[in-house]
Predict the 3D structure of the following.
Amino acid sequence: MKYMLLIYVTPATTAPSPTDGARMMEAYESFNKAVAEAGVWIAGDALHGTDTATTVKVDDSGTRLVTDGPFAETREVLGGYYILDVPDLDSALDWAARCPGSQNGGSIELRPVVDFAAG
């Protein structure tokens, strides 16, 4: 079953130190290697900050409304995602707990991916 792991982080008010930034990159590289070697990795990427976001809505009249920034104002922001193909929710929970984004104040939201039949 495919699960999307949505990585939510609290935006830093200051840039991380070079040491902290290097540690985090090493942790993600290790996690990336682990999911690849386990054969469960389907996709995953980090996202640029919310200052690069654009939100699109279409109102009842069909008019497209474009707004700079994210739609919702929240304390945490979506920082990236993984899509993993694992046997069950328990396996997805295990991987989510290993993801560096679940530590140091971050959180992982797990959502099963809907598999629409072709055609």
